[in-house]
Design brief:
Blueprint (H helix, E strand, L loop, with lengths): L14 E5 L4 E6 L9 E8 L6 E3 L4 E8 L1 E6 L2 E6 L3 E4 L5 E5 L3 E9 L4 H6 L1 E3 L10 H10 L5 E4 L10
Antiparallel strand pairs: 1-2, 1-11, 2-3, 3-10, 4-12, 5-8, 5-10, 6-7, 6-9
């Protein structure tokens, strides 16, 4: 086992990846950095970005809203979460979210760090500050290659919602 070392990153520092489900990930900690305990990334998103209904079979997910507002659907119920709020979704729980504000900035942590391969497989290195690129086929391919990380359950549950 490799000894863990302290890691310090300033605002904006980290591996920047265009997530092909929409959004820019700035990776703060990789699973290898934490001995597999968890990974962490900042997610920069624009209005209307949504995720499909999905679950993480073997990982808990915590999302802290740094800026903006999201609507999270957990087990079929909607919950608005604004800046300073957070969500904790235990493994196996169906969920999805929708960005309701002009933009949102989230901090996502998954534990254990087994889901990292899904996100890395569904993203590309970038130097841009934003990304709205969407490639559903790539998301599906990465999900199928990482069944312990994520299971796509269906379309976003927000089809009839109007966001301001």
């Amino acid at each position: 086992m490799t000894a863990l070392i302290p890691i310090i990153k300033a605002s904006g520092e980290g591996d920047r990846r265009s997530f092909l489900g929409g959004g820019l990930h700035i990776w703060k900690l990789m699973s290898d950095d934490t001995g597999g305990a968890f990974f962490m990334f900042e997610d920069l998103l624009t209005h209307g970005k949504t995720t499909p209904l999905h679950r993480h079979p073997e990982a808990d997910e915590t999302v802290y809203v740094l800026e903006g507002e999201i609507l999270i659907n957990v087990d079929g119920k909607d919950h608005p979460v604004g800046a300073g709020g957070m969500t904790f979704t235990p493994k196996g729980t169906p969920h999805a979210f929708l960005v309701c504000s002009d933009h949102a900035r989230l901090l996502t942590v998954q534990t254990p760090g087994i889901g990292q391969a899904f996100y890395r497989g569904a993203s590309e290195s970038t130097t841009d500050d934003t990304s709205d690129m969407v490639d559903i086929a790539r998301i599906q391919t990465s999900a199928k290659a990482n069944p312990r990380a994520i299971e796509l359950l269906g379309p976003p549950p927000f089809a009839n919602r109007k966001v301001g």
